[in-house]
Amino acid sequence: MPPPSPLSRLRHADPRQLYLLPELAPPRWWQIHKKWQRKQAAHKHAVSRGLSKQDFAWISGVIGLAFLAAFTPSIAKHFKKTENPPYQSIRVMDSTPANPPSALWSPAPSSELAPTVPSGHSEAEQHLLSALAALRQAQLKTAEAHLDAVLAKYPNFRLAYLLKGDILLARTRPLQKIGEGLDDNEVLKGLRDEAKIRASLLTQGKPLPSDHTLLDWPTVPPHVRYALAVDIAASRLYVLERDEHGLHPILDMYTTVGKAGGFKTKEGDVKTPVGVYTLLAQVSKDKLTDFYGAGAFTLDYPNEWDKLNGRSGYGIWIHGVPANTFARAPRASDGCIVVANQDLAILQNYLNPGSTPVYLAQQLQWKQSKNSSDKKSGNDFDAAFSQWRKAADTMQAEQLLSSYAVDAVVDGSTPTDWPNRLREWYSKDKGNASIQLKPQSLSVLKYPSTQELMQVNFSQEVERGEQILTLVRKQYWQKSAHTQKWQIIYEGNS
């Protein structure tokens, strides 16, 4: 027997199941559903033409009674009341009145169609969060109005369809979880996880205020206006804008990360890296398959620190989603950062391939911009870096070498090679050459997941006679657990 067609499945499916059918790409499922309705109407018309109205009514009544006799037990069980509050697992609704007031079922005023959560999120997410907030208050009609506003513009938003189906079911009985009564599968699990992640924003009450900055990003160069930060555990991507106090969030969006979370170590582990990276290039939509959506931006994973630690893998990108999908589950990628196509279109206005830094952390830590409570912890590093910089500018070889670990890797050379070359060059060219670090290029970042590692980026101008050479350099400083001294463990061209 051939497998049932999508059309036959639609005849018996729970309305919420329509959007979970994998072979139906939205809005194709709606077209099929309407086609089936037209066929049913034509069939009914053909049958009715050969019968009198009385006969047709009698036959319809018999069929209806037979249907009720066969399915009443299962229907009664399906709509059995429960004392537990609906959506208990994600706390979307605190309670549902036994006899809800008529206001819940009356059309929502037009003013309620505007998002009720603060801005900072995309329009679709603002409406979705407003719907979830309304559900917490059991304001079903208001929630439905917000979901309708989303679906009118984004008909491929699966979670919005699922929530709307739950709202219809909630009018008959309280619900304890999203998609209650549906068969558990990976698609439904992903939608439930997405709902939990998005609903967690309601506990914040509002996006991060603009007077917050990243705790681990003390210094950025003036030419960097925007940066990205990703909270892997929370599945959130933040756009940060630079001002005199540092980088503060101006926009955040839901994102998909690796199936196995963060801390990528090897190829194929489906994890998202944790570290500080740079956007390398933009890949246009016409050069990619539909899987990558509206386009992609490549990252420089693995970077120098990853390579020093033996981490492997490649192809970590920020990209969109297929055309038939609005968003993917929170943990569904092979390690990439995935956002909605609409969000990617907004995001690309803030990105500058070749210079935009991307900060990937398991969990982001924030501080108020004017809060100086973390300056004390950075004083010892500042002193160590100032000592190195003074020795480099004055070409003091031995003092400079004291800033490097005994096993430091410099420009790919082994620890036994480069110190002697440095001494020889300094002794030969001292007085004929000068080295100057450009302060406006300096970037200092505490590496995520540890407070004992710093990434430093800067430009150096080397003048030898009439020749002037500008070098873009990168260093990794690590604080020794034994000596509690900051030392350079890697240095090379960036």
Structure report:
- This protein is α+β, with helices and mostly antiparallel strands and 494 residues long.
- It has 13 helices and 17 strands.
- The chain has helices at residues 6-12, 28-49, 53-78, 123-136, 140-153, 158-170, 186-199, 201-204, 304-308, 341-347, 375-394, 397-401, 418-429; strands at residues 212-214, 226-231, 236-243, 246-254, 257-258, 275-283, 296-299, 317-319, 331-333, 337-338, 357-361, 366-368, 404-410, 433-446, 453-464, 467-479, 486-493.
- The strands form four sheets. An eight-stranded mixed sheet has the order 4-3-2-11-6-7-8-10, covered by helices on one side. Strands 13-17-16-15-14 form a five-stranded mixed sheet, covered by helices on one side. A two-stranded antiparallel sheet has the order 1-12.
- A hairpin with a 4-residue loop joins strand 2 (226-231) and strand 3.
- Helix 4 packs antiparallel against helix 5 and helix 5 (140-153) runs antiparallel to helix 6.
- The longest helix is centred in the first third of the chain and has 26 residues, at 53-78.
- The protein is elongated, with a radius of gyration of 30 Å.
- Mean pLDDT is 78; it is low at 6-13, 21-30, 71-112 and 372-377.
Outline of the structure:
Helix content is 33%, strand content 22%. The chain is an alpha+beta fold.
User: Count of DSSP helices?
Assistant: 13
DSSP strand count: 17
Q: Averaged pLDDT, please?
A: 78
Q: Could you give a short account of the major beta sheet?
A: 8 strands, mixed
Order of helices and strands: HHHHHHHHEEEEEEEHEEEHEEHHEHEEEE
What fraction, in percent, of the residue positions are helical?
A: 25-40%
Strand content: 15-25%
Q: Strands across the major sheet, in which order?
A: 4-3-2-11-6-7-8-10
Q: Cα distance, first to last residue? A: 63 Å
Multimerization state: single chain
Structural class: alpha+beta
